[in-house]
Amino acid sequence: MWKVFIRRHSYQSKVAPNREGARLIIRRLQKTVLRILRDPDFRMSKSSFQQKPAEPEPQVDGAQFNVHRNGKPDSNCRTCNDFKSWSKQQRLISNTQAAKEKHIAASEKLTVNAAGVAAPREDCPLDKVRLGISTWGLLHTMAAFYSDNPTDTEKRDMRTFFEVLSRLYPCEYCAKDFRSDIEVNPVNVNSQKDLAMWLCNFHNRVNDKLGKPLFDCSKVNERWRDGWLDGSCD
Ligand SMILES: Cc1cc2nc3c(=O)[nH]c(=O)nc-3n(C[C@H](O)[C@H](O)[C@H](O)COP(=O)(O)OP(=O)(O)OC[C@H]3O[C@@H](n4cnc5c(N)ncnc54)[C@H](O)[C@@H]3O)c2cc1C
User: Does the model's pTM come out above 0.70?
Assistant: First the structure.
């Protein structure tokens, strides 16, 4: 093979295989060896010795991304791109997707939590339902930790608190019903148990008005102070 190569090059370069010719042949030989190493399909034909135009490098972005070096589609993009380009591309895809989901969620008053699940937004003004849930939480917890033997001051403060709340509760018609209810069923501030039961019954009257199921008031301290007897809150 090398004899053919040397003969052909001596002929092509039209120089005798003297010192100058030998240098030229060695240079071409080096080039040819490099090309054989780079391209296993390389054939030592006459045309092979002519300079080929450089092949464009495959691109890693956009539509080119799924295309292998040989032009065939590749199902596994990690094999057709170096890891750096592949991971950059993956980050771009997932960032774009996350931004889209956040935008849609915001317009629907939803938020996407760490697990990627859409949940109601936490940073908007309270509506009647959320205000109610939060207020009941505060009221029942205050009753849960009220004294078993309250002082006169504690009794007065607690009564005053409910009276003021029934005037200031920021849902006008809720507050109106609240005031009417207190007039008929005065707040019982004699002990923790009495206050918790009074509040539970008041809450049930609101539940009843709204067509909601009534709560079993014998379990009010489990719900708001001690946790359920089955230990599920421990
Ligand atoms: C003083 C007040 C007056 C309101 N008035 C109105 C009104 O007129 N119209 C209106 O639309 N909304 C009103 N609301 C809001 C309404 O009561 C609810 O808070 C809201 O509808 C949300 O209901 P929910 O079913 O999610 O649970 P909520 O009724 O808010 O209850 C929260 C939690 O308390 C527990 N619970 C339920 N019932 C009792 C009970 N009897 N005792 C102890 N714990 C209980 C349950 O575990 C429940 O998950 C009022 C709220 C308050 C605080």
Answer: no
